[in-house]
């Protein structure tokens, strides 16, 4: 019963947040800080509705360079609400072009200045990547990417795709990994408290002086660091179940 009530409230919240986000986008279209504001708009009420307790340790994300590529693990559609707690200032996201057909959210996503990529058209995808490189180099804006390219459904990290690392090397900006604990299979949405989640960011990884020949090793390094971090957070939650039992905080 509680699960059904939550899903109804989440559906209503998704529509209301979409309307407010579109209005924000119309008032200041393509402002790169719209993404952060819209992310909070989705995340804060959702954490209250779902009763997910989130603890964040994201100093390296909060104090990130003006321009960087942020990479994060991608578990489920709930990531919109979970990671929405920590999206930093002037950060846009890369998403698939089909998102624009999602009522309200698609229009909000576009007006927030996010980048829509047609993955089925290699030429258009490359052109979008060139645009993001210019954004990173000249507009003091960071780009958030899910390098797995799709949801891992709470399993181990999938192999990373090249796009995020190509952008970072081409623009000469650092990569900031952000990790969330494995939550999607642990959520108990029919219980009053649905579960605990940890989010941590890792130190920035510089790309200055790297070439595309260095990209495979860079991808392996980032993936290994994120995998270690996720496994450490999962162990922490298993051994200390109440570690995230305080109200969620945004740092």
UniProtKB/TrEMBL annotation:
Report the top EC class in one word. transferase
Instruction: Give the protein name, as stated in the record.
Output: 1-acyl-sn-glycerol-3-phosphate acyltransferase
UniProt GO BP: CDP-diacylglycerol biosynthetic process; phosphatidic acid biosynthetic process
> Pfam family example for this protein?
Acyltransferase
Catalytic activities: a 1-acyl-sn-glycero-3-phosphate + an acyl-CoA = a 1,2-diacyl-sn-glycero-3-phosphate + CoA
Question: Which organism is this entry from?
Answer: Pseudomonas spelaei
Membrane spanning stretches: 7-26
Which molecular function GO terms apply here? 1-acylglycerol-3-phosphate O-acyltransferase activity
